[in-house]
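Now for a typical sample entry:
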Amino acid sequence: MSDLKEFKLPDVGEGLTEADIVRWHVRPGDQITVNQIIVEIETAKAVVELPSPYEGVVADLLVPEGATADVGTPIISVNVGASAAAPDEPAEVEIQREISQDEDMVPAPPVEGASEPGIIGSPAPKAERQAVLVGYGVKLGTTTRRTRKASAVRPTTTTPVVPAPEPAAEPAPAPQSNGARALAKPPVRKMAKDLGVDLSTLIGSGPGGSITRDDVQQAADVDVAPAVSGLGRVAPVTSAADGVREERIAIRGVRKHTAAAVTTSAFTAPHVTEFLQIDITETMNATARLRGLPEFADVRVSPLLLVAKALLVAAARHPMINSTWDEAAQEIVVRHYVNLGIAAATDRGLVVPNVKDAHALSLPDLARALAALAETARAGKATPADLSGGTISITNVGIFGVDTGTPILPVGEAAILAFGQVKDAPWVVDGELAVRKVCTLALSFDHRLVDGDLGSAVLRDVGAMLTDPLRMLAWS
């Protein structure tokens, strides 16, 4: 006996209110098991995969791909306890559903003796997925096309349907000249369509023979790399000569979250930004010396490491800079731990993952944590947990070749430090003019929590420690 159950969109992050349905991994009529991955969703912070809480047969997909659903909205219905129809039961089915719905599925080989192409009589074995919420990306080559049923018309005889033989092993990647679908993710397919590239003519260089963006770009022989939209999708390469004067990009995912967050922060917390130009020559020398130590042999050391350490020491000396304003409770919460956020520009937009309990890490461990954080963010695999719970942040605007900026506070944080580019500049040393390594720091803070004297003290302390790194030892 079956029982129809609806699975509601859960809150997979702190304060999640909605999510976009990126891709369904199942279709109506599919047999599913508990903890089987059924859908990819894009939240305000990350792309995650949701496992099924039920075992049974998919009755209906209640929210289509590309749509936005609120938390608590039913997104799929399942006949719990039911079983999919056996291969020898007569049934009306579709033949060759629109292939775009399967995007990166592996095409099944034709069954010998079948009357029409694309009809298969037995399912290929399904690869097992782990029942966890993960970050962005689907592992290529681990999914096979779902089972197609036997016929599009009810049989008029009692002749039993003979199951087809197991499909043969997949051949090695080769140009898809026989009409089979090339292995590529949806963003790559869109990019190929925009550039006029036929994916069936390409040999993929990615995992499992998948076609990558580089493969498409090389095939298109474009001189200028396509612009990144900031939404995790590649914008078409257009110019006035193409007759395209403007384009529209849906506001969703990370871009939508970033817009809401900075707007809320800008119009809720009264921002103040102060600037300090410093001689950072000794920090650059110390960075070079750290790279030669065996404790840092397995990690890349950059000046950002010492900037992060200086801010951690300053937060310990001035705890109010690491506080938050609780409007509902009408309380100021002073945190005696630091989850250090590092702003990162990624293909999906601006994200601020944080190092949990950074205050408790040794300098080598902090270096490894920062390196791991950067790698995770660049790969688009930062999870909601990585992106939640930050207490104070750093944005390294120097990597973009600018001196400084006026950063907007992450929501719930009292301060953010901008680290500008390091460059040679004239500087007075011991009464004489010299060429030194100079940079500009900017500290934005919430004036409800941080008065001008406290903000200035924190900025001066960070500047003093970067001018003379030995102060970090004295003040730690």
Observations:
- The two ends are 66 Å apart (CA to CA).
